[in-house]
Amino acid sequence: MTLPVQGPVQGAASRAGSSSIAPPAASELLHAVTQRPPGMAWNGTAYTGARLSHLDTDAARNTPGVVDIVVRQDFIGIIASQPGQAQQARSRLQPGWAMPLPAPEATAASHARLGSNNTPHGPNEERISHTYFWPAPRQQAPAWAIAHRSGDTLVVWTHTRHSEALRRELAQLCGLAEDCVRLIANGQTDSEGYDVAVDAALLSRSCGRPVRVQQDPDTFNTKPVSIEVSARPAAGDTSQGQAGSGNAAPPAGELLVSASLHAGHRPSIAAMLCGYEAGQPPAHIVRIADYAPQARHAEPGSSQPYAGMLGLPAAAQVFAQESFFDEACGLQGRDPVQARLDAIDNATGRELIASVAERAKWSSPRKSGKNSYEGRGFAYAHVIDQTQQPPREVWSAWVADIRVDPATGAIDLTGLTVGHNAGALQTPSAPRIEEDVRRAAARWLQDASGHDSWGATADTDFPLAQSATQVQLVEQGPVGLAWSHDAELPAAAAIANAIHDATGIRLRQPPFDSGELKQRLALAQSGGRAKKTAYALLGGMAAAAGSLLVAAMPWRPAIAPVANVDTSIYSAAAIERGRLVAAGGDCMVCHTAEGGVPNAGGLALETPFGKIYTTNITPDKETGIGAWSYAAFERAMREGIHRDGRHLYPAFPYTAFAKISDADMQSLYAYLMTQEPVKNRVEPTQLPFPYSARPLLAGWNLLFHKNETYQPDSSQSTLWNRGAYLVQGMGHCAACHSPRNALGAEKSGEQNFLAGGFAEGWEAPALNALSKAPIPWTEDELYRYLRTGYSSLHGVASGPMAPVVQSMAELPDQDVRAIAHYLGTLAPAPSTEASPALQAARLEEQSRNDQRVLSLAGENLFQGACAVCHDAREGPPLFGARPSLALNTNLHSDSPDNAIQILLHGIDNPAMAELGYMPGFGDSMNDQQLETLLEYLRMRFAPDKPAWEGLPEKIRALREGES
Fold it and tell me: Cα(446)–Cα(462) distance, rounded to whole angstroms?
């Protein structure tokens, strides 16, 4: 595979302009945002997504602070004095987009020729096609760029891994010579600023002033995405491979490797939207037989340099092609090493492969026992490293030996034989190279990424015991080994091929998950177990009967207090995991009184049955849980039984906490027991009879509680199961967001799960298909809301939800994404007729132009109390967020409770300080004024909903603190 590899901007790039590398002062900057089409697509040579059909810019241009609105074909940019002004103007744009007709199968692909001794494919010959997934790089923060076009010079401050490609594109789009474009690193090494750099350059060219563009949260990809790579032989190729041993070779023809998510070679988004068309196909065409570097371009069947710009990583291409080659050899019963040697015509590559195979003793059979499977895999790559001067070729061949435990799916990397030739004179020490090899392999193995896995995100968190892996290095040539990252390219494919050799199971997405492998092994071995299953079923029935008997007991024995909990046995990792469990369960939210010490208890919870005071969960021995053993703690969490044997009220959501895994429960105990003890004796809960008779809760538990841990749904993804586990278990979302029956239990049935409820005098809106949100929630909007406390399409987190968002700020990003992903599958499907932005624009326009509301008495109240922050006609926001009332779920709800609560008490503790504060009007408006204002808000911003009934009574009850 001949792949050029480009390097990032290093310091201040040369060429063009003055010697100063400092960006313009903030006072000199303009700020810009872009309006992207609702659907973007690139077929490899041209933009094929939604097209701009019409655009009304009048309202946007009248926004204070707007400097210009730039439109070039499908590219729209808004330049203003401040970021908020640009964003406000964008919300007033009314673009119309014409969606393209469904396109045939994409032709943009990367090609590789499979060496073969066969005749070409016949019309009826079976063809194979497989899809592989490669983890896309994830940015840690939105990228930004500053561009200043002055005369014939363009200076851009950004960070990109593709500096030369960016310079060429900027020169072409701005009509400059490449020497007139200067790139300066902005220090943002964890983000890719290619797209925003081109945006800023085009807009600076238009206004002649320095412009700053920051990646929009709507386009900043925090989602853990994968690049989808499809591999299949192309039709109609009649080429032959070299003569070899005479055995059947892998399928003849071109191997098409195409990628999703614009992962193939593409220009910047701005260039695509401005009508840029690639002058030649972006395909990278190589012969899989030898990966020999080619010089031909453009014509079909020739080699074209792979342009990695924002595109398909070389490692992804190697993984797909080497996995596919191994699969093709397996179908034809061929040894992959011999098949490669039979086809290859590059002397250096042939020699390297033969040396690695000999050193690894490739022909030796592998043995598998009852308790483990052993296998080995081979992969090869040949690339051109253009980060070196002059560019040099790198050959690399890997043999990976693994052992798989079928009981756990654990993958043990027992040996690596690696050979590479970089044609360089320097020779790093062998121990250092061995460590690099171990690290390169270890990153593609991970422990079971089950529903209760935490924080496996860092590249440094390798589950592999690296020192236990035997590494053999094969030197080639007189120059010895000169390690290059390109030499790591075959690692993932070699491991995947070894896993398949050991188990017969093909994993097509790294990193390779031992949990997935365990499930697939169990599924493959599930035959002939009917008798065992029957015995297991009988045993389970007996255990269930025993559990029911225990649960029905009105009195439970006490568990003796412990004199001392030895916290030294808990590792730092276990305590940190427990901290995350506590954050996911919002423990501090309920167990901290207003103005009190965290987790010391004393918060009064209003329930339909009376006031319940939360307990002290610090490790104080007298007033907290310091004398609780783990057995007592677990019983309380899973069964709702106090250490002394009395039943706990289900206001403590043990019905949800029972779903927590054993590992998470133990970690939570470790975390709580290592915190600072606080002596705080809280007021005892005293409910009126019959609710004060705690033994009656045994019957309640028998009816409504299942002491079962979460069981993952095998038909769903790991991300979905992770989200379901967090939502249903420690997150206990249903405790507030599900309706309850007369006995205070969550109503059963799928239709009632997260169908809306009430807590602490607030409505917890429905999160399922019964949601009253005027624009359906999407995964991305849910993620944004849970991460920041604000969604421009829905509103601000307030009331009891604000501290929940604050607590969730401690969670790893992928866990918040998992929650959003799971909840997104429960929400009603988004409209296919209009994008969310277009729906929002229609609702806001409707709320501004309804003449009926202008005559209502509440108009004056609204103008005096609300308009300065909530009416877009009053100019851009001066601070904080400006939630659109036309999009606010509270005003579209069947219940006025949340709207009343916010008007009475305001928001004095926002989820995030940058969202700003809202004053309450409980002291400045009487009940009649509040009723008048609420009637106005309902009619103006939710005109399709009936008027609220019983407002006077509800206002009076909530003002007095009644529920």
Answer: 7
